[in-house]
Amino acid sequence: MHSSPGSYPGQGGGYPPPPPPYAATPAPPPYDPGGGYRPGGPGAPGGGHGAPPRPQPARPAFGALRGTVAGISLVLAVLLSIPALSALWLRWEVVSDQGFTDNAVELIDESAIRSEVARLMTDEVIRQLPPGVRNQVPRQVVQTAVTEEIAKPTFKAIWKDGVATAHDVVLSSLLGRDSKNVQTNGDEVVVNLKSPVDAIVGQLNKAGIPVSKAGLPTSIPIDLAQLPHASDAKQGRDALQAVDDAGRWLPILALVLLVLGLAVAVNRFRALVMTGVGLFLTSGLLLILVNAASGPVADELAARNTLNRDGIEAVYGVFTDSLDTMSWSVLAASLVMIVVGAVGLGMRGRRR
User: Fold this and answer.
1) Residue 311's CB: how many other CB atoms inside 10 A?
2) Distances from the Cα of 342 to the Cαs of 273, 294, 328, 329, 347, in angstroms?
3) Which stretches are transmembrane (predicted)?
4) Residues 6 or more apart from 320 whose CB is under 8 A from it?
5) Which of 44, 89, 101, 308 is most buried, judged by most C-beta within 10 A?
6) Exposed (0-12), middle (13-18) or buried (19+): which is 209, by Cβ within 10 Å?
7) H/E/C letters for each residue in the chain?
8) Which residues contact 270 (CB under 8 A, 6 or more apart)?
């Protein structure tokens, strides 16, 4: 006798019911977005499909404050780089007696400056000659003698002393302070250069013109600078003092801000890269400005001065040479900062 389809063993006979679908498969663990895959799947040691999340590194203390202070300090340091370099250059090359004198001595070796000084000295020698001799002396003879005198080391020593004293008189406004080679005449500073008497006499005698030393000038005044008028003296002193103070303190301030910003930065390597990029841009801009200004400055000053354009370009080149050097130095340092910061960021990324 067969059991009915709806009957089960123990309940009137028949077959047991089929098990429910997937009854032997355990339920998957809850989704963990931070966990990774763990080999072994369900039931593996540790359970679940993913590893427990890694502990998050502790946030640095005062991170937001440090980031703000570092950002402001580094931005100010970058922005101050151009005025700091310019003020330091002016203090070294214009305000400083030693820097100005060294540049003036270097200038006398420039052909354009030597030619201009020789021309001024030749004009003054001819002007001071006795009338009877003046008409007999060819200008070229005097110019040759003057040029020979300028080439001697003794002339460079006189020139250096005259320029140094003239610079001291102008910047210090010591209107009555003279030296053996410099006198103040009203509002003019005049350097007395030794007249090339022996050379001139020798040249004239070779040319068949008998001349004695008694009739030749023993010194040649050359105007080196214009002293400020009384109405402009205070303004000039204030400007000079401002340049001197700025050249002393602005570079120190920029350096302090740079060190402070890098010291408190949360990510020092990133701060190093960003600061390097900023300094690279500012120093590059300063280099472009200095070199681009040479032509316009020479054109402007040549129209208002007796010194020709070549001479003005020589003066500009000598006096801005140190500014060029400082700008290139900052540019090179900025590239080092970028490279070091980039390498540090790369190494930190690989360790993670």
Assistant:
1) 23
2) 7, 36, 21, 20, 9
3) 249-266, 273-293, 326-347
4) 89, 290, 294
5) 89
6) middle
7) CCCCCCCECCEECCCCCCCCCCCCCCCCCCCCCCCCECCCCCCCCCCCCECCCCCCCCCCCCHHHHHHHHHHHHHHHHHCHHHHHHHHHHHHHHHCHHHHHHHHHHHCCCHHHHHHHHHHHHHHHHHHCCHHHHCCCCHHHHHHHHHHHHCCHHHHHHHHHHHHHHHHHHHHCCCCCCCCCEEEECCEEEEEEECCHHHHHHHHHHCCCCCCHHHCCCEEEEEEEECCCHHHHHHHHHHHHHHHHHHHHHHHHHHHHHHHHHHHCCCHHHHHHHHHHHHHHHHHHHHHHHHHCHHHHHHHHHCCCCCCHHHHHHHHHHHHHHHHHHHHHHHHHHHHHHHHHHHHHHHHHHHC
8) 341, 345
Task: Look up residue 105 and give its amino acid.
Answer: V
∠ CA 351-275-293, nearest 5°, is 150
Placement of tokens 């369900």 in the chain: 42
User: Nearest-CA neighbor of 173 among 235, 92, 100?
Assistant: 235
Q: What is the pLDDT along the chain (352 residues), one digit of tens a residue?
A: 445 555 445 455 555 566 555 555 566 666 555 555 555 444 445 444 555 556 555 566 677 888 899 999 999 999 999 999 999 998 888 888 788 888 888 888 888 888 888 888 788 777 777 777 777 777 888 888 888 878 888 788 878 877 777 777 666 553 344 555 555 565 565 666 666 666 767 776 776 666 666 656 666 666 555 545 545 556 666 777 788 889 999 999 999 999 999 999 989 999 999 999 999 999 999 999 999 998 888 888 777 766 778 888 888 888 899 999 999 999 999 999 999 999 998 888 777 6
Give me the residue label for tokens 């007696």.
97
List, in sequence order, every residue forming a beta bridge with 226; answer none if it has no partner.
188
Measured CA angle at 140 (ends 206, 111), to 5 deg: 120
Within 10 Å of residue 193's Cβ, how many Cβ atoms?
22
